[in-house]
Amino acid sequence: MARELDQRVDRVQRLQEARDALASLLASSIASDLQARERGADTSADDDDFVDLAQEVAIQEDREAVLDVLRRDMRAFDHAWQRAEAGTYGICEDCGEGISAERLEFVPEATLCVACQARRERAWFGAS
Ligand SMILES: [Zn+2]
């Protein structure tokens, strides 16, 4: 029993570390995004700068895609963290069974077991 508790504390710590790492990554991505926007605002768009501008737009779109992914991950971590605080971290939200240690190792923010995750994905993607 004590060992189980140790493992749980361990997992929550790992969740927190992963979340902190993601939070600082997100913060620095937002900071560099803002800097890039300021630089972009300073540059007046001349006609011969069109290629540069197109490139800049493409880079900007990439950056926004990356930020979107980071923000989504952050929400998943926040959600998992709320469950940790409620003492239900590592328990599947759908079926109430324990999520395997292996899964939590690779996906610390997981709040669904593999079976329930797969079932939800099938529902989301509307497989017949
Ligand atoms: Zn489940």
Under CATH, the topology can be stated as Four Helix Bundle (Hemerythrin (Met), subunit A)
**Oligomeric state, counting identical vs distinct chains:** single chain
Q: Any idea what the radius of gyration is?
A: 20 Å
Q: What's the main sheet like?
A: none
Brief overview, please?
The protein has one domain (2-125): DksA, coiled-coil domain (Four Helix Bundle (Hemerythrin (Met), subunit A), Up-down Bundle). It contains four helices and no strands. The chain has helices spanning 2-42, 50-85, 101-106, 114-125.
What does the model show?
Helix 1 packs antiparallel against helix 2. Helix content is 74%, strand content 0%. The chain contains four helices and no strands. It has 128 residues and is mainly α. The protein has a single domain (2-125), classed as DksA, coiled-coil domain (Four Helix Bundle (Hemerythrin (Met), subunit A)), CATH 1.20.120.910. The protein has helices at 2-42, 50-85, 101-106, 114-125. It is elongated. The chain binds zinc ion. Zinc ion binds at residues 92, 94-95, 97, 112-113, 115-116.
